[in-house]
Amino acid sequence: MAGLDPATLADVLRLAGSDGFDRIQDQIRRTGGCSDPIRLRGSTVTRDRATGHVLHSYSTDTEPGGILRVACGNRRAPRCPACAWTYAGDTYPLIRAGLVGDPAKGTPDTIRDHPRVFATLTAPSFGPVHNRPGNRPCRCGTRHPEDAPELGTPLDPDAYDYAGAVLWNNHASELWRYFTIYLRREIAKRAGLTQKAAREQSRVSFGKVAEYQKRGAVHFHAVIRFDGPEGPDTPPPAWATLDLLTDAIRAAAARVAVDVPPAGDQPARTLTWGTQLDVRPIRAFGDGQEITEQAVASYVAKYATKAAETTGTVDRRIGNKEALALLGVPDHPARLIAACLDLHPLYPDRKLRDWAHMLGFRGHFSTKSRRYSTTLGALRQTRADYRAAQQRQTLGLPDPDDETEATTLTLAHWFYAGHGHTPGESWLAATIRRDLELNRQTAREELSGGALDEHDC
After folding, report:
1. Per-residue pLDDT at 455 exceeds 70
2. What Pfam families does its record include (predicted)?
3. CB atoms < 10 A from the CB of 35, how many?
4. 305: closest CA among 118, 70, 74, 72?
5. Could you tell me the residue ranges of all domains in the chain?
């Protein structure tokens, strides 16, 4: 407990000496060490349908403080590392199932034979920034180290197009939507088919994640895969080759354009993808020449929990420019946020003020097409069902899905009672989370012989 401030230390000692300490610790452990748990009050009663006899009952009245803590479920690592780890853990098998196949998750093992690429679509330039161009020095004449704070910041902030940068972020999801539309058209064109005929013979599935570059611009990493007419269960037609898919992606990206009308002192703009388009084949099993399925799934899972705070901004909404100085936001992200606040009255439907802390981006960070693989909801439901079955077995209750045993009725009443921890509980949650992470890492090292992939870390 060395280094704790007096208030936190006093609260830790209070908790440790309380009658309900063991139960508080158990609740926090069950949330995985969640940083901002939801507090609930309520009860649940399971009765025999025929007799009305109570088989099991639970009430938060018996809990310390009369509350039950449940995990917040926030995917963003700065907000809650514990729940972000779970989110990344769900994203990894979702993406991997669309690469290597997993019948339990809706994709056959033969999916490895389908043409697949890992594509990265970026934003255009809004002005020169400090960077590390290979073995050459930056335009400023300096060879920046990897952790240099000036990386991604403009060489001339006053000449940088901050308005264009945040408007591009704000429309990035629309750029992606148009890209998927044009991709299907370009595929049909290259196959010499009508769009209807191409759809009847093949499907294009994808799973993508958004990531912020150091300069604060969003870019997308996407797994894009050719399937047969019924999705992953059917092989793609002979014309659906890797080269055709790659060419179609490049052509579709070049076609995308989203027009932004003039407003106030802002000119009309046509937003497009940047010229840095990277399309790489994904090789089954990994032959050492191209990126592998494992690397792709790990990469996507890693960035599914990150957001704009990696650029130096904050992870909560900002109401005015005065807050930027109080929060200590660095100059470059502060200028991007200020641009959002200035542009909001000119484009009120774009909700730039609400998404200023995200540097204008208002889309989902992780998305997939319907037939790519399973869903996060299905994965979470499987985990919930498993835990519920464990609980029923412990309590000796019948399975409600078994028609021969469907003799019980469960009534539950819950309501919100706040969120968060006391200072001592926060310290306890962080300690539990670190212990769980260490245990997981140790277990995986034993299973993998000490070789961890990026997601494991």
Report:
1. no
2. RepSA
3. 22
4. 74
5. 6-76+377-448, 81-126+161-368
